[in-house]
Design goal:
heterodimer; A: about 350 residues; alpha+beta; Rossmann fold; OB fold (Dihydrolipoamide Acetyltransferase, E2P); 2 domains; six-stranded mixed beta sheet; five-stranded antiparallel beta sheet; 9 helices; about 25% helix; B: about 325 residues; mainly alpha; MetI-like fold; flat; binds adenosine-5'-triphosphate; binds magnesium ion
């Protein structure tokens, strides 16, 4: 099912939930809504589900405008962050509920529920009540209930945020696999950018009720169109520093106090064409501690992450996060030299926070 | 507690146990004192009065001088030609007020006011609380003024104005009157309990049901009602007992009439016999017999409800362990 959202606005009195959102989602696509808390992800999802009526704009499922369509007539499956299992029903009754409402015959209900439960690995729990299940098991029941009616659209509202890290990793893979298998158009809300990057075909980055970007994960990562996207996508986050880029002797130099770096032709040219200071962004993996680096700094703190260490280096007033192999033994207070990979830097307009390199 | 066995052997642990018991009883003491002073002692006194023939003619406040008559009051009661009628009156009154108003209407008001705009719902519910917070005398007076015979009654004035025949509502339909007037008071209790129960159902559950394909009515049937089952049963139990013993409104409205015991209920009889009999002839002993039977019926009903509705399942194990 193709989903077309045009200029969608949802307000609660004066509070803006989401404003002027335009998104076109292809049939069978897996789209993630990514953004910080309160940015309007759940609001958008519930508006798609028909729980909220749009204040303005239009939502189409295929060719059908669904603005005024009741939730029950939208054929949607939804997994809630709280799972929202009916506590007075058994697992079987929970999963069978959408079928019962569709007046599916009893014996077919039983068959379908058993089938879905087996796929979810909860076939042996059908007689239990939600209160007697672990979080992971409840999550599977919720997923089963969303899938059993073979919906045209699947909506997920942070379905993994209550699970432990390991289970989250497994479920991530399972949900993605299942979605591709069934080919159901899916929207997946999360504020965990790793989840969004690994699962989604395209990511809609939202902030403060507005769409910031809608692109494939690697595109967002390597060609962020706004400073917000650059800072939000990627972990650890991108480093930002305000610089002046100028041209001297046919070379482009990014400069600020204690920093003087040569930038490659294309990127440097665009930045130098900009009047005044720009915000330079560089990802942690594009900075190396190296003997022949040309920027001197002092290590402020070292955070071991296991596979690698996250190191905060201070260069005068500036702070840079970077990654170093765990085998290196840097200590706080150590003087080091840094090498910047200037072919990967980003530049942003400090006023509009839009990228100088990539146009919308 | 079994893991954290206190050091120091038997005597220490039994002293600890004693202390925790004392602590528990200490916390229960205030409620316990209230029950003793305002329930157990009065019941005991009424029980004693019911086996005496104390009346206006042989009044004494000295318990020892009262004349013991055994179960004669109860015998009289069983042979009283009106006791039977009053008994069925009571069942009729409790059953209809409870089922129509205290439970059904309360449930409908709660469901309606939780499905409309929040502020409108709040206002609507506030209106329904008025009968309860109005003094019974004022409240009954309002009804009486409304329903009075022509030319005084407000409704009859309308009837006259519209050229309709006038009615003496209270005389022709006293039961409708009694049940409606009590029911309007009764709604608010269930309404408050049901509303708070409905509003405490997580929003996600309610949304999930709609997304799963239910209409709003189906959601009420399959999700909301099952989830407020305990409040429902509680209101049924509590209101049965409370209706059994309430008589003030009936007393003010019809005083058991019109005619002989037309709307007289059991608790009103106990009052009439013991405290407000004709010619100032109060029969404390006989009235107490009525009261004792009412307490008995109440206790039996409470136990039956507790068994049938399995209220023990509702009571969760305490989360705080006493160490
Ligand atoms: N029913 C409501 N009434 C009023 N304001 C609301 C309502 N629902 C959401 N909002 C507001 O709309 C904005 C967006 O909320 P929303 O729940 O969509 O955020 P979210 O992106 O899902 O955040 P989170 O990651 O914390 O779940 C917030 O400012 C919120 O306070
Ligand atoms: Mg949310």
């Amino acid at each position: 099912m193709r989903i077309t959202i045009d200029n969608l606005t949802k307000k609660f009195g004066d509070v803006v939930g989401v404003e002027d959102l335009t998104l076109h989602i292809d049939d069978g696509e897996f789209v993630a809504f990514l953004g910080p808390s309160g940015c309007g992800k759940t609001t958008t999802l519930l508006t798609l589900a028909g729980i909220y009526k749009p204040t303005e704009g239009q939502i189409r499922f295929g060719e059908r405008v669904v603005n005024q369509v009741q939730p029950k007539d939208r054929n949607i499956g939804m997994v809630f962050q709280s799972y929202a299992l009916y506590p007075h029903m058994t697992v079987f009754q929970n999963i069978a509920y959408p079928l019962k409402l569709k007046k599916v015959a009893k014996n077919i209900q039983r068959e379908r529920v058993q089938q879905v439960a087996n796929v979810m690995g909860i076939g042996n729990l059908l007689d239990r009540r939600p209160g007697q299940l672990s979080g992971g098991q409840q999550q599977r029941v919720a997923l089963g209930r969303a899938l059993v009616k073979e919906p045209d659209v699947l909506l997920f509202d942070e379905p993994l945020s209550n699970l432990d890290a390991r289970l989250r990793l497994t479920m991530r893979g399972e949900i993605k696999h299942l979605q591709k298998d069934l080919g159901i158009t899916s929207i997946y809300v999360t504020h965990d950018q790793v989840e969004a990057m690994t699962m989604a075909d395209r990511i809609a980055v939202m902030n403060g009720g507005h769409l910031q970007a809608f692109d494939a994960p690697d595109e967002l990562y390597s060609r962020p169109k706004t400073q917000f996207v650059a800072g939000f996508v990627g972990n650890p986050p991108m480093n930002f520093v305000s610089v002046e880029v100028s041209r001297s002797n046919g070379r482009f130099i990014a400069e600020t106090d204690r920093l003087r770096l040569e930038v490659g032709g294309d990127r440097g040219g665009a930045a130098a064409g900009f009047a005044g200071a720009v915000v330079m962004g560089i990802r942690p993996e594009d900075i190396q501690i190296s003997g022949d680096g040309d920027i001197a700094g002092e290590i402020y703190v070292v955070e071991p992450l296991g596979r690698e260490d996250l190191i905060d280096v201070r260069v005068g007033p500036h702070s840079f996060l970077l990654l170093a192999g765990a085998e290196t033994q840097y200590r706080a207070g150590e003087e080091v030299k840094l090498a910047f990979d200037m072919d990967k830097v980003q530049f942003f307009d400090p006023q509009t926070e839009k990228s100088i390199l990539w146009q919308q | 507690m079994s893991i954290l066995k206190p050091k120091g052997g038997q005597s220490q642990s039994s002293r600890n146990a004693l202390r925790s018991y004392l602590g528990a009883y200490g916390f229960m003491a205030p409620a316990g004192v209230l029950v003793i002073v305002f329930f157990l002692i009065p019941v005991a006194i009424v029980l004693y009065l019911s086996v005496t023939n104390l009346a206006s003619s042989n009044f004494t406040s000295d318990l020892a001088k009262m004349e013991f008559v055994g179960l004669r009051n109860y015998e009289t009661l069983l042979n009283d030609q009106f006791a039977r009628k009053i008994f069925f009156n009571t069942i009729f009154y409790v059953l209809f007020t409870l089922s129509i108003f205290n439970v059904s209407a309360a449930l409908i008001v709660s469901l309606l006011t939780t499905h409309i705009d929040r502020n409108a719902g709040f206002l609507f519910r506030a209106l329904w609380i008025l009968p309860r917070i109005t003094s019974p005398v004022v409240y009954i007076l309002i009804w009486k003024r409304m329903m009075a015979e022509a030319p005084f009654g407000i409704i009859n004035q309308f009837n006259e104005f519209l050229g309709q025949p006038t009615y003496n509502y209270v005389a022709t339909n006293p039961w409708v009157f009694v049940i409606v007037v009590n029911g309007f008071i009764g709604i608010s209790f269930g309404m408050i309990i049901f509303t708070s129960a409905i509003e405490s159902i997580p929003k996600d559950l309610l949304n999930a049901s709609l997304v799963d394909g239910s209409s709003k009515l189906q959601r009420i049937r399959y999700v909301i009602l099952p989830l407020i089952r305990w409040p429902l049963l509680f209101v049924v139990t509590y209101q049965t007992l409370s209706l059994l013993t309430s008589f003030v409104e009936i007393q003010l409205l019809t005083d058991g009439g019109p005619g002989l015991y037309r709307t007289e209920v059991w608790s009103l009889t106990a009052f009439h016999r013991a405290l407000s009999n004709y010619f100032g002839n109060a029969q404390w002993g006989y009235g107490s017999a009525f009261a004792v039977l009412l307490v008995l019926i109440g206790v039996v009903l409470a136990v039956v409800y507790m068994r049938v509705f399995r209220f023990d399942e509702l009571i969760a194990e305490p989360r705080v362990e006493v160490l």
